[in-house]
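User: I'm putting together notes for a lab meeting next week and I want to include a structural view of one of the chains we've been expressing. I don't have a solved structure, so I'd like a prediction I can at least talk through. The sequence is below, exactly as it appears in our construct file.
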Amino acid sequence: MKHLRLATALMMGSSVTEAREAAAHPVLDLTGHPIALFCLGLFIIAYILVMMEETLELRKSKPVLLVAAVIWVLISVLDRGLGIPQDQVNKLLRADLVEYAELFLFLLVSTTYVNVLDERNVFRVLCVWLARRNLSYRKLFWVLGIVTFLLSTIVNNLTTVLIVSTVVMMIGRDSPRFITLTCLVAVFASNAGGAFSPFGDITTLMVWQDDKVDFDQFFPLFLPSLVNFIIPALCIFLAVPHGTPPLTDACDVQVKRGSWFILALFLLSIFIAIVFEQFLELPPYLGMMMGLSFLMFYAYRLQRRRRNESFDLFHQVRDVEWDTLLFFFGVVFAVGGLRYLGYLSLASEAIYEQLGPTSANIIVGVMSAIIDNVPVMLAVLQMEPDMDLFQWQLVTLTAGVGGSLLAVGSAAGVAMLGQAREYYTSLSHLRWAPAILLGYIASIAVHFWLNAP
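Assistant: Thanks for the context. Below is the predicted structure for the 453-residue chain, given as structure tokens.
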């Protein structure tokens, strides 16, 4: 939402080369060392604090940032005691930095565009349009859920959540329960929609780039993903309040100058990112940064032509959800430390060798809800288990939708925690975990029914 990329130094070619070398280097097996066990314990404590964010009123970025730094300090101490060269750790840190930087830059552009569109009243006008349809809260629940599911296949699940959450909080401002439940459905609907699209989620993008599943081989996952969305949505629908949101004074709102052109630039930026990735073999964040440059030039044009209208693009950059971006920094580096110590490889080897691919891939989905689906999928890809296409599709599905089991299990959930923190929390998500788990099981069953060889 879950992807800090502070600019140009992160994009240097030497860093990318070192990152690839580091990724190819085998991790150590230090899992039994007391310092390594202490690092694992710190990580568990940090995630418990994240899940208790609402109760403690402690921003989720704080514990994971601290624990990520402490883990790597302890790794450095451990390596010095074992005589391991420090340059190996530095290369691995640069690899994690590149991984995070790519995610950060993509998110930075997406959230900036969302903030600008909000400032231009685009979402308020959309709210008025929906309100004028005289739709009840229950109808709006389905409309927004379906829109989220479909939009996430094109835009990606994280950006979709940012857009939908803004609309939900505006149109449901008089019904906190409606906001909570619709934000919840937006999280698992966006994860489900992204699971059958090569660029709908970071995990599907990684599987696609690693040539495990071809572009057209993602689409057999459509019905399993749809079931994953429909079943928990039906359960939650019963708790959606009755009534119709009032129009109040929002009826008179109008979009500001340049709004629709900015929306077109946003869609163009996403299209460019896809073209860069699919046809030019360039990273998607580069296309998004090009799109940001378009927005910056257009903002300059607006300022020059309408000097009486205050519009500073960097105010929108300032209002980006930095707590979420810093949280991702902590997660990437903390999990990277655990990977270096051998815990992810140990877990992957244990479940694939002892349980077989089907059971292992189902467990991977559950693990992705706890650790975050991106590092879990990365661990699976690095293990390179011997699996056929059906099993790679299965792990793509489970890692994508399994993150919905907990609020912190996916980028969409983490982003929603930041966007709608007063309404959507880890505890409010956890209350509906059984319904989401039912959808998770049903989607796997449908995959076996439709796609098993």
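A couple of points you could mention at the meeting. The chain has one domain: 30-451. Residues 86-119 form the longest helix (34 residues).

User: Perfect, that's what I needed.
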